[in-house]
Amino acid sequence: GALSNLMIENAKAFKNGAKAGSTTPTLRVFVDGKAQRYIVVGLGSEPTEEKGLEGVGSAVGKALASKCDSEKKVKNAKFLLPVSVASDKSSVKDMSATFYSTLYVDNRFRTGKKVKTPAEDLETLTLLPDGPSPDGVQDALDDGSKMALGICMTKDIVNAPHNVLNSLSLADTAKRLAEESGGTLKCTVLGKKECEERGMGAYLGVARASETEPQFIHISYTPEGEVKKKVGVIGKGLLFDTGGYNIKTGMMELMKFDCGGAAAVIGAARAVGALKPPGVECHFVVAACENMISDKGVVPSDILTASNGKTIEVLNTDAEGRLTLADALVYCDKELDCESIIELSTLTGACMVALGKSVCGVWTDSDDLAEELKDISKLTEEKAWRMPLEKSYNEQLESKIADIKNIGTRYGGSITAALFLQNFVSKKKPFAHLDIAGPVWDDKIGATGYGAKLVTEWVRRQGE
After folding, report:
1. 207, 342, 370, 464: which has the highest count of C-beta atoms within 10 A?
2. Is residue 37 annotated as part of the catalytic site, yes or no?
């Protein structure tokens, strides 16, 4: 029939299952005067012991979203899926998460005909296994939609301009997130006074020039039942970065994305609060502020004192993110006593020079943590690559008059940034720094939502 002819016409492309997420042209079949549309979606090669279904769910979810958007006047759609794929909960979850997050659109600042409504006619999309429905399919679909909420929140935060989203409104967002979580999340925001009492001089130094008071955000998740592990996740939260007195000479219009780490962390907090993973207590921390210019601002050569007593000679005010992260790390390490800590930040242009705009850099002394993050990044398809922590480069951070400088020389800037951060967390604790400066933003679509899935999956695994 017509479907057989469609497959014959596309036999070359669909040999051995075709590339996952590839689609045939739309086939229209008229039944009783009504047109029915058929599309065949590729699932890739048959799974083997060496290569399973990794990436299939997200590729198919993206293809479904694209077709549901482009095929107008479709109210109800059904997707027939082999039981072998439908029974893989991870693939179904990824399919759901990617479907919803692909349909994301930011209409907050559009009016009239500029407002976009993806898949505007679609009312239902039903997943139909080609055999007996496996257990847990609906739960996996629901978990995917919860993950998508976190990804979309991450995109919203990164996309928002500074005149709409500053450190105060980000703190309000975190509070509202906790209030709407049904009790799974709690939010505490430390103001300037509380930060001063803790001696957070590095963070407060950066925040000094802004008209908005610093907001140190702490969201906590505690599971029901036994807590097997307590972990910390830190996100860099510069809501705008002018560079300070070392003012940026390019790309300043993109510096609203300097809160990309905070966005990933808060988006992950939303997902974790909804998914409720057992066995893990997680603390999400963001030292939110802006790096602005005023008569109160830090100037090159100033010396700041972090909350662990380390003195820092500020030789470049545009190397400010690491100063805010220093006090956030001490807070997670000393005050919260987290057993493992990961930190995400749009920290250096040097990382983008090394790895491009699609891959984040990972720095850690823990081989186990490095392998865990490598495995998770493959699962979530958020590319990451372990980078060297070359200890000899610590010489670049030696100051003539303070404990440490905030920058090294021109070369190896992403490595010296990672080495700087190690001064503010116990060497006995597994700690990883992820520089996400590249993949957090796409010049064609804006915010990518990078990091939300990775953090959520990392948190989930800690309770196993």
Report:
1. 207
2. no
Q: Which of 198, 322, 453, 460 is catalytic?
A: 322
* 349, 252 contact by CB (below 8 A): no
Q: Is 198 a catalytic residue?
A: no
pLDDT band at 17 (very low <50, low <70, confident <90, very high): low
Q: Rounded to an integer, what distance in angstroms lies between the CA atom of residue 189 and that of residue 105? A: 30
Encoded tokens for 18: 């075709």
Q: How many helices (H) and strands (E) does the chain have?
A: 14, 17
* Catalytic residue of the set 186, 228, 229, 248: 248
Would you state the structure tokens that stand for residue 128, as one six-digit string?
A: 């139909």
Gap between the terminal Cα atoms of the chain: 50
Question: Do 82 and 35 touch, CB atoms closer than 8 A?
Answer: no
Please, are residues 426 and 240 in contact by the beta-carbon 8 Å criterion?
Answer: no
Distance CA 278, CA 459 (A): 10
Rounded-to-integer distance, Cα 449 and Cα 267, Å = 8
Question: Coil, helix or strand for 409?
Answer: coil
